[in-house]
Amino acid sequence: MKKIGVLFFVWVIVITATLNGCKEDCEDCGPTVTSQLIISPEQLSFNDIDTVIVSLSVQPPQKFDWSVSSKPDWIRVEPSSGTINDQILEVKIIPDFLNLEEGLHSGAIEFITNGAGKAQAELQMYAQAHPKIEVTPMQLHFEEETTQKTFKIHNPGTGILQWQLPNNLPWLSFSFYNGYLYNNDSITVTAFVSREGYPVGTQEETIIVMSNAENGNIAMTFTMDVPEFEAIIPSDTAILFNYFIDQVELTLENTGNVASDWNISFPVDYLSVNPVSGNLAVGESVSVFFNVDRSELSSDVYEATATLAFGNNEQKGLMVTVNHYLEEKWLIDGIINDAEYDRVNDVIIAVSESPNEIRRFDPSLQTETSTALNLVPLCVSISPDGNYAAVGHVAKVTLVNLNTMQIENIYNVSADALDIVLAGNGWVYVFPAQNQWEDIRCIELSTGQETLSTGYSIYAGTKAKLHPSGNYIYGANNGLSPSDFEKYNISGGTAAYMYDSPYHGDYSFGGDIWISDDGSRLFARSKNVFTSSENQSNDMIYNGSLSGEGGVQTLDCHTGANRIYTVFTTGSWWEATPGTEVRIYEAEYLGFMGTQEFPGFLVPDGTGGGTFFDSHGYFGFINAGGTKYYALVKAEIGSGMLNNWAIVTLDVE
């Protein structure tokens, strides 16, 4: 054991001497113990606006050169290299966020030495939005003839740029007033100028483009050259003469910068204006009144362009629209309950309530005479010679002289009249409205005595017409199934039931009847046509039908003109509504020829315009010459008109 201890002691002395000798021989020799570069902290989290510090040191302390060997692009390092010895060195890490997307970015920074190794720190940086704004150009000049130019707004930064332009500028406006731009996006904005109302010279406006950009708001300067110019501006370029408007007021204003003459002209003679010309100083205005002369206009929409001329050959077009409705109907008052036509005198004889009157209308002259009635009129009949009319009431009949329009007599009747026939034999025949099986009331006009028809009874509600021969009355019963026609002989005064048609359900009749002017045909409400003859075997024989939908509301036949004019009904059989057109047939073969629409009722809407309501034809007649068709029409329900009846005149085609 002693031997080993001596040997170890000797070995330590030798080694120590050797080391000391080396130190004496080489002053510049490096350390024999390994040093290590230390970084603190080894993990860093920061925002892009923060500067952070890391500490570098060498353990054990020795002198070394150091530098940054790698780093992310989004930081700068100060200092980025140097010498380290026994001190603790602070190094700044500074964010460099130019065009860096918003969000969390990760990376590492590495430091290296020439003998103490290297060290690394992990980095996490949150990049915020840093929008910036660029505007090019920042000055815009509008020459005399220029009214618009463009400029560009650009976001060279990161995040969303919000920008806004002022919108209350007197002569400057923009295609866009605000918006959003993502990083590196641009928008082109058009600037517009208006020179109206500005004096000759140059106008200048400086605006501020507001934004959330880090580099602040941007000032822009706009200049505008204003030459002499003339401008007469109308308050409206579209002039509407609605149906009930004959004058329209317009204002002309001088928005130019010099006084100007003006005048208005028209290409049509139904328009005029007052005043037609004048002179306006700068900023002045004048009212002009446009007028329409409707005297030569027909129902249509008329359009014309008026020309407003001013200054040095400057012109503006004014579109003028005239809505015109030529009222060709003869508007009448009252509620028409029944009407017949007198071809001897070419007049319509009608009875109305509100007021209770018998009325004589001459459609060709549009003249009317009337006589007040003591009772509500229910039906009317004209004598074949046109001299008298009989009016049926509740339990009364009024006889009226149509030449004098005077009441000559009032007769008591033992029934309420649904229909009435004034024959040329000195008798009047009343067809009862009620009580099912009834008799015709026959009244001798000279005595006022009432007798009852003989033979079979009739059914209450029967409608009747006098045959042109004057010897017979045909009736169409109502309320019975099947419906039928009947014939009564009146040659002896008191009506005598003769017979009904040979059909019982084979052909429909429908409850009303019309007779051709030559007496050869009978027309049923059902549109079926039957013959008329004094020979029973040929009487009321089916002869054909009128084509079309619905039932007959009114019908007239003019054999000389070879025409049948009729109005059909629409809707259900029991709630039928008279149609809005007349249907035309040729009389010889019953061939359909076409239709003519009744002109509607134009009702004012209170604002100068109007609403059209359909005309429904209740009674219609062909005049003696076969050239005109007269219809008593009524406005559709809901028109709001107090007087909603009229007489329409159509040419017979």
List the helices and strands and how they pair.
Blueprint lengths: L1 H24 L10 E5 L2 E5 L4 E8 L4 E7 L4 E4 L2 E4 L4 E7 L7 E11 L4 E10 L6 E3 L2 E4 L5 E7 L6 E4 L7 E3 L3 E4 L4 E8 L7 E11 L6 E9 L5 E3 L3 E4 L5 E8 L5 E6 L5 E4 L2 E4 L4 E8 L7 E11 L3 E11 L5 E3 L2 E8 L4 E7 L3 E6 L4 E6 L6 E4 L5 E5 L1 E8 L4 E17 L4 E6 L4 E2 L2 E4 L5 E3 L5 E2 L3 E4 L5 E5 L8 E5 L6 E5 L12 E3 L5 E4 L3 E4 L10 E4 L6 E7 L4 E8 L6 E2 L2 E6 L5 E6 L3 E4 L5 E4 L1 E8 L5 E8 L9 E7 L2
Parallel strand pairs: 2-9, 11-18, 20-27
Antiparallel strand pairs: 1-3, 3-7, 4-6, 4-8, 5-7, 8-9, 10-12, 12-16, 13-15, 13-17, 14-16, 17-18, 19-21, 21-25, 22-24, 22-26, 23-25, 26-27, 28-59, 29-30, 30-31, 31-32, 33-34, 34-35, 35-36, 36-37, 37-39, 38-41, 39-40, 42-43, 43-44, 44-45, 46-47, 47-48, 48-49, 50-51, 51-52, 51-53, 53-54, 55-56, ...
